[in-house]
Amino acid sequence: MIKTENWQAIFIVLTDTSLTESVLKILVDCEIRGATIIETQGMGQVLGTNIPVIGSSVRALLAQQHENSKTIFAVSKHPEKIDKVMKLIAEKMHGFSEPNSGMMFVVPVLKAVGIGKKEIAQDE
Fold it and tell me: Are 20 and 66 in contact (CB under 8 A)?
């Protein structure tokens, strides 16, 4: 069944991957479950190693970026829970104000299939 409720997706990009568990704990504490975590790489990392015409000063700046990051995303039909998650994570990350610390954003989910509570089949 296609869902058309007021779902939102939150995306959290962490360059400090040691913070992954604490961010997941915030999601759970705010009653957001079912997050997905993927290994990601920033554009600067790819460009810094694959394009030979980048100058040495730009290459040095790109070298300061973390090699790997984690992107966590989850959906919820409760905007107040998303707001609480954003507030707590922003506090933990000092508003992502440090260079190359990551980012966080929310987008509306207009239609979706496969989200929401699902029944777990019981063995008979």
Answer: no
**Dist. CA 42–CA 17, nearest whole Å:** 13
Please indicate, yes or no, if residue 117 is contained in any of the structural domains.
no
What pLDDT sits at residue 121?
A: 56
Provide the 8-state DSSP code for 66. -
Backbone angles phi, psi at 42, to 5 degrees: -75, 155
pLDDT digits (tens, 9 = 90+) for 23-41: 999 999 999 999 999 999 8
| Owning domain of residue 13 | 7-41+68-109
Total number of domains constituting the chain: 1
Confidence of residue 5 (pLDDT cuts 50, 70, 90): confident
Residue 118 lies in a domain: no
For 73-96, what is the mean pLDDT? 96
